[in-house]
Structures are given as C-alpha cells and as structure tokens.
Design goal:
- This protein is α+β, with helices and mostly antiparallel strands and 274 residues long.
- It has helices at residues 2-12, 35-69, 85-114, 241-254, 259-273; strands at residues 121-128, 131-136, 141-145, 167-170, 174-181, 186-190, 195-199, 205-210, 215-221, 233-239.
- It has two domains: 2-20 and 27-72 and 81-114, no CATH class; 121-257, Immunoglobulin-like (Sandwich).
- Strands 3-2-1-5-8 form a five-stranded mixed sheet, with no helix packed on it. Strands 4-10-9-6-7 form a five-stranded mixed sheet.
- A hairpin with a 4-residue loop joins strand 6 and strand 7 (195-199).
- It is elongated and about 85 Å long.
Length: 274
C-alpha cells in the first residue's frame, strides 16, 4: 500500500486530470486530448521524472555520505588521493548512457510533432497586440478573437480564457495551423494538444493536432509581447462532424472573407495605434 501511494505521488501525479483549462495550484499537465500530448506526458512521467528523481536521490546520498564519512573528527590526517581512474570513467559513461536512453523517445516525440499529416482542416492564426486573428483559407472565413472582459463573463466562463469568437474543429480530424504575427513575437499554445509554436512577423510556422475527444480547450499566448500579453487567450471547441458542418454554414455568413472585412480590420488597427 505504501509503495502504491509513493508511486502515485512521484510518478502519476503530474498527469492527473484537471479538465481542459488550468486550475488554481495545479502542478501537473492538463488532461491530454491528442496523441502528441499523450506522448509528451508519457515521456515526462515514465522517463524524465524517474531519471531526475533517481539522480537527485543518488547525489543527495553521496553528499550525506561524504559529510559523515570524511568529517574532520574522523579524519585527522587529510587524504592525499588525487584521482581515481575507474570513478572518472564511470561518471563519464553513465551520464552518456542516460542521455542516449532519453534521446530515443524524445526524438520520436519531436519527429511526430514536426511531421504534419495530410490536413482535413487548415487554420491560419495571426498574432496581434493583443488578440488573435483567424482564417479558414479553404472555407473563405476570417474573424478576430478578443478576450471577454471580466465584467462581461457569463456563468461558468473562465476568467482570462474566454473569447468572443472561438475556433471550431471536428474531432478525430487532422488540423494544420499556420501561425504568424502582424507586429511583434507571439506564441500560439494549447497545452491539452501538446502544441506551442512561435508567431513571427514575416514568417509562417506550421503545427498540427488531432483532437481525440470533444470539448472546449484553452490556451494562451506564450511569448511576452507587451503590456497586455496575459490577455491573449485561445479557445478551441472540438465538436462532432455534424456540429462542425453546422458551424461552418453559420460562419460562412457571419465571417465571410471580403474586402470590407479586411478594410474594417485595418481601420480598427489604425484606431488602436492612435
């Protein structure tokens, strides 16, 4: 029983379920909603954490042992030992082996994140000071997504995470996200999907995810971008295919991409600068 409790505290706790948004005093990851995030959690819980815990415990033991074994009261005459070849070989080889063991699964995770499958849905995310703009290029949809002020929040809407216009994607479909910025550096991050990419002006970075369950998922800009950096939330609704088709039908009317919508955005940006 004691071993089970210790295992839960030190190994399983980081991946406990906290829902699709950060919680007060949360120590672990948000619940995984994609294979990429599942791989990241596995690598953290069953590779990094045991190795780090083991190394920390071993070093602590050596420190305590050295303090007791080689204390001045027990060693009246100082040792003249200058080196030990075997120990030097071991403390070189063992870390190398540990790094190799860690490298294999980490390269696998990185490769899967950077290899984008054929996309079912393509979204372009554009970072502005201080909101996100989105386009669905294949659907001729464009809209901006601003954080909802605390005074305007409805019941059960999370503070600093709720937006006026949310992204919608279908469940179990590959979603490719093209990320850029219009002014300064931003970063588009969704913890539950294991996604984080920098938004760089004049450059497009790409990432992808495949949501494995429906729900509302939250993220935030993760690159310091100015005074309102903390007010750039990201909200993604993962819905069924039918619900996604219904949303597309409405969005094509409400957020139709045309010259007037682009001009309105330019005018709005000029007013913000003034």
């Amino acid at each position: 029983m004691f071993k089970k409790i210790v295992y839960t505290l030190f190994f399983a706790f980081p991946s406990l379920v906290f829902a699709n948004e950060p919680k007060d005093w949360q120590l672990g990851f948000q619940k995984s909603a994609s294979k990429s995030m599942t791989d990241i959690v596995w690598f953290h819980d069953y590779m990094l954490l045991p190795i780090i815990t083991g190394i920390t415990a071993f070093v602590l033991f050596l420190l305590l042992y050295a303090c007791v074994r080689f204390r001045a009261s027990r060693n009246k005459v100082a040792s003249t030992t200058s080196h030990n070849t075997m120990i030097e070989v071991l403390w070189t080889l063992i870390p190398c082996l540990i790094l190799i063991v860690m490298a294999v699964p980490s390269f696998k995770v990185l490769y899967s994140q950077d290899t984008i499958p054929k996309a079912d849905v393509v979204i372009k995310a554009i970072g502005y000071q201080w909101y996100w703009g989105y386009e669905y290029p294949d659907e001729n949809i464009i809209f901006d997504s601003y954080m909802v002020e605390e005074k305007d929040l409805k019941e059960n809407q999370p503070r600093l995470l709720t937006v006026d216009n949310e992204i919608y994607v279908p469940v179990n479909k590959v979603v490719k996200v093209m990320i850029t910025a219009n002014d300064v550096l931003h970063a588009w991050a969704l913890p539950s999907f294991g996604v984080k990419r920098d938004a760089v002006p004049g450059r497009i970075n790409e990432t992808w995810f495949k949501a494995e369950r429906t729900g509302t998922f939250y993220g935030q800009c993760s690159e310091l971008c100015g005074i309102k950096h903390a007010f750039m939330p990201i909200t993604v609704n993962v819905v069924t295919d039918q619900e996604y088709k219904e949303w597309l039908k409405k969005a094509k009317v409400e957020f139709a991409k045309n010259d007037s919508s682009i001009n309105n955005k330019i005018v709005k940006k000029i007013k913000e600068i003034k």
